[in-house]
Amino acid sequence: KMILWGPILLSIAASRASPSSSQYIGDSCEINKAARYVTSDTQSDAKMLLKYPWHVGLHHKEKGDARWKQKCTGSLIRPNLVLTAAHCLHEYESLRRMRLKDILITAGKNKKNLYDKEAHQQSSKIEKSFVHPLYTAELEDMKDIAIVQLKKRFVVSDYVRPVCIKRLSNYKLEAMRARTVVWHMMRDRHRYDDNNTGLIEVKLSIEDCHKTFSKVHNDVTAVPSFYTHDRFCAYHPNGVLPGRGDSGAAVAVPDGNEWYINGIVSIGGDTFTIF
User: Fold this and answer.
1) Whose CA is closest to 89, among 11, 149, 151, 1?
2) Which InterPro entries does the UniProt record give (predicted)?
3) pLDDT tens sequence across 176-220
4) What DSSP state is assigned to residue 195?
5) 30, 33, 145, 168 — which has fewest CB within 10 A?
6) CB-count exposure of residue 31 (10 Å: 0-12, 13-18, 19+)
């Protein structure tokens, strides 16, 4: 969850990334009107990119492999800033920070494969990264949030546009009409559906993690150590949930006629996701 610390990190990153906020004039955050008309738990079609123009892919170049592979996702919060999960900037096994030159950010893509060229596709390497100072990979990715500054500012359009970000007030966690968009959908517990190539919209049933883990383990005391007060959960019994490669995706919630980012996909199990 990012409503407590995210705005602080954003202000630090933005101040270092750009001396003047005037460069953001004309790049206001917003969402295509189509995003307000969500009718099912999951949707996947060519219009997903118009609904979620802030969604970006993080592609890694691994040792001994010259090809880019989509490993994580994130959200454009300024034309040159991306919010993602901190663990997306670390190697999977060693937990060491990746070299920035081995990470590529893409926007304007409905398909996850970098090499499936699309009309609105844009790419950029990373100039700088800002990871939560208390992030701990060894402790189940606690404080799993980061912002990266792009070397090349993305051109804003209907297909590439920052998501709104602010501290939401007067909302109830379990009443949030939250949505996310994924590339690696997981169905029915352990079965991942990686045959999908386009973006898929997922409706999230948000709740306190204590309730989630009492359902998963039938034990209200089964909340793991990596759950902290700055996180929330979504329970997906026999349903659809983000899969491997969807870490960093935004949890989007409405506030009036606009949608805002209120969390990011961090980690999960076979029936739940932690944000």
Assistant:
1) 149
2) Peptidase_S1_PA, Peptidase_S1_PA_chymotrypsin, Trypsin_dom, TRYPSIN_HIS
3) 667 778 776 655 544 455 556 688 887 777 666 666 666 666 655
4) T
5) 33
6) buried
Percent of the chain topping pLDDT 70: 55
| 24 in any annotated domain | no
Q: What span, in angstroms and rounded, lies between the C-alpha atoms of 63 and 191?
A: 28
DSSP assignment string, 31-66: --GGGG---SSEE-STTHHHH-TTEEEEEE--TT--
Tens digits of residue pLDDT in 214-244:
666 665 555 555 566 667 677 665 556 666 7
Q: Look at the chain and report how many structural domains it folds into.
A: 1
Q: Does 222 reside within a domain?
A: yes
Residue 187 belongs to domain with CATH number: 2.40.10.10
The whole-angstrom distance between residue 201's C-alpha and the CA centroid of its chain comes to: 13
